[in-house]
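Need a sequence for this fold. Nothing fancy.
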């Protein structure tokens, strides 16, 4: 326990996750279904409550649409523990004395990170467009790629992480509004 095994892995994976979806553009239409304007959806790595507080401008209006992403849980994945040894060995690019050099990578701890995404919008069509940009690309999963953290090896190695959607979404509609409160989905 003398070492500090912190290599910003969770931050790097969450940054990649947000970047994978952060280019959604939705359209606002007129009554004839012609495109009136296009809006880029903002993705923010923060809990929904914090996003609502931060995005409220001086006139007390939210700038919508926005998707808030935050970690809702981390658990060890026993199903992915396959190598009980002290890590693994890989061939490097360098050759010494006619043999490829090998390098040691310590055994990672396989974890599952549960993520909560909250879509906030003023119009239901905005939410539907955001969902239609998310659902097809996560069927059944997407893969994000990142580098083995520095300090594990002198060689660059790619790590691939699957982002698997559990297949369900909960929608909550505002059902109790005062006369002065704006409608938000």
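Here you go.
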């Amino acid at each position: 326990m003398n070492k500090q095994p912190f290599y910003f892995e969770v931050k790097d994976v969450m940054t990649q996750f947000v970047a994978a979806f952060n280019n959604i553009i939705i359209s606002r239409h007129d009554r004839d279904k012609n495109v009136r304007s296009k809006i880029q959806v903002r993705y923010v790595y923060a809990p929904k409550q914090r996003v609502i507080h931060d995005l409220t401008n001086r006139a007390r209006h939210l700038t919508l649409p926005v998707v808030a992403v935050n970690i809702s849980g981390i658990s060890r994945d026993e199903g992915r523990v396959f190598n009980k040894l002290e890590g693994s060995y890989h061939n490097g690019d360098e050759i010494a004395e006619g043999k490829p050099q090998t390098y040691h990578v310590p055994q990672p701890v396989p974890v599952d990170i549960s993520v909560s995404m909250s879509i906030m919008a003023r119009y239901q069509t905005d939410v539907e467009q955001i969902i239609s940009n998310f659902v097809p690309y996560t069927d059944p999963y997407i893969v994000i790629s990142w580098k083995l953290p520095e300090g594990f090896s002198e060689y660059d190695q790619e790590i691939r992480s699957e982002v698997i959607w559990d297949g369900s979404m909960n929608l909550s509609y505002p059902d109790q509004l005062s006369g002065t409160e704006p409608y938000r989905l």
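For context: The first helix runs from residue 9 to 21.
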